[in-house]
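Table 4 source record.
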Amino acid sequence: MRWPRRRNYIIDKSLQIRLLMYNGIYFMTIVLAIGVALFLPLYLDFTNPDLSSDQLLVVAERVLYLHNKIWPVILAVFVVLGLHSILVSHRIAGPLYRFRMTFQDIIDGNLSRFIRIRKRDYLVGEQAKIEEMVLVL
């Protein structure tokens, strides 16, 4: 019996969304750290009462320059990392789905199905151990 061919990248919604959320939190933490490192010194310059208006203008130009350059790059990286996270989670969730189907077959008494995972999927070592276990049974 062949498994139906899947066309979507969301196989295990709960797992994949959780992984995507963790990656989003990591990304936002990095963005926050970079933002603080870049913008806090400029903010402190703005609040310095000893600066002349010409010096404040230079600081304002730096802030505008950073805003114009950094946010489009951060947005592009966020989109690329989000897509990559979905792809990687797909390579984990796909084999897990096949493992569950095989486990259900074992519960039903069918020991003839072997797990077939795609060439680039993860969990290949686990697949081999499950197949070894089924052969022993």
